[in-house]
Amino acid sequence: MYQIDFNKPCHVYFMGIGGISMSGLAEILMKEHFTVSGSDMKESDITKMLSQGGCSIKIGQVKENISDDIDVVVYTAAIREDNEEYKEVKRRGLPMLSRAQLLGQIMAFYKYSVAVAGTHGKTTTTAMMTSILMQAEKDPTVSIGGMLEQIGGNIRVGSSDYFVTEACEYTNSYHSFEPFISIILNIDNDHLDFFKNLDNIIESFRVFATKTKKNGTVIINGDMDCVDKVISGLDCRVIKFGKKDTNDLVMKEFTLDEVGRPVFTVEAEGKILGTFKLNVTGEHNAMNALAVIAASMELGIPVESIKEGLAVCKSAGRRFEYKGVTEKGAIVIDDYAHHPTEIAATLKVASEIKKKDLWVAFQPHTYSRTKAHLEHFAEALSVADHVLLADIYAAREKDDGTVSSRDIEKLLKEKGCDAIYLGDFLSIEEYFSKKSKENDLLITMGAGNIDSVGVSLVKK
Asked: What average pLDDT score do residues 162-187 get?
């Protein structure tokens, strides 16, 4: 496998450079004086930003983009073998690295690398870890899967030995990492198009845990039924967190303030560390914060700096993000939740802070996920007073005709929920504008482009 070397910058070409993760890695290499170029299928704010920074980007992926001076090519899972660039790279015999392999190699250059894994909550947890390290003046390098106001984007290049990144389980990409600290927030049924079943997902996380450096630490949710399977046979330090008293870090005296932000105390080995206040919402984020508190303590960060970092940390974009108020006075929030567990957590917070009716405009993400979790989607969404359903966002998949948003509509109606399939975004906007009233709360929800609905409603 080709090995990049920060001491010998070369020319790296990114196929799909406009992706949130790929663009972040490109930016790290650019700031480390590598020559970076790449391509994407369409222009975006991200490609424009990279171009302004000196990156040469081609829109459209054709074989002519592959030049003689390229040393190594980086690609994403979205690149197919029939892609013109991919075929040309293969024909030329150029070295290739997957996005995850490159991220793992970058991580190896940092002594204190923290990889945040879990089926849910990675981005917000990475944001909290970043905020604490910055509050403690550790000058970290950060790669995050969302736009974070505190660092002005999805990437930050520091000059210290500290590195923080999300570690995605899909296609086992995080098996390319060897972190100093591995965080496992939760393990749930997801990405079944790849994993097929929960046992395979658990095994994947177990393998990820074994990749942790021997002098490092695995920090894991000790409330999970599968925790013993994941940590079995590990030869590094293990710290468990959760609500159960058997954990090393235990959440106590949990409450929510008037806008859904957690306040809680933490007990470590029988001693109270103190009371912590978050600037993000929901009990699920208090659990995520426990993991970050444990990681920060392992890195020797004082408790006061941890408290301060958590108190000022805002969520990354599309995580219970306030968008504004409509002409009628309805409040609009956007959230990235696209799995039933995430939806349930988000709507729990929303139900506790709503003044009048709770509306959800939901765009399911991928056919395989929708089909695998139909009943669970309906159960989670039924908490809302009204559900407006958009067509499924295909992402990497093709519609085989076996599932649609109408299936969720049917199940919701059977539960007595006011649900309606509207399909396109304009119909959703028009329906909500007509039916909503002052102080109603609308959450646009999903991992696709449903957020544009909220943006449009607020502008009107």
From this structure: 96
Closest residue by Cα to residue 388 from 438, 349, 329, 332 = 332
**Which is more confidently placed, 113 or 150?**
113
Among 14, 188, 186, smallest CA distance to 101 is for 14
SS3 string of the chain? CCCCCCCCCCEEEEECCCCHHHHHHHHHHHHCCCEEEEEECCCCHHHHHHHHCCCEEEECCCHHHCCCCCCEEEECCCCCCCCHHHHHHHHHCCCEEEHHHHHHHHHCCCCEEEEEECCCCHHHHHHHHHHHHHHCCCCCEEEEEEEEHHHCEEEECCCCCEEEEECCCHHHHHHHCCCCEEEECCCCCCCHHHHCCHHHHHHHHHHHHHCCCCCCEEEEECCCCCHHHHHCCCCCEEEEEECCCCCCEEEEEEEECCCCCEEEEEEECCEEEEEEECCCCCHHHHHHHHHHHHHHHHCCCCHHHHHHHHHHCCCCCCCCEEEEECCCCCEEEEECCCCHHHHHHHHHHHHHHCCCCEEEEECCECHHHHHHCHHHHHHHHCCCCEEEEECCECCCCCCCCCCCHHHHHHHHHHCCCEEEEEECHHHHHHHHHHHCCCCCEEEEECCCCCHHHHHHHHHC
Mean pLDDT of the chain: 95
pTM for this prediction:
0.82
pLDDT of residue 401: 95
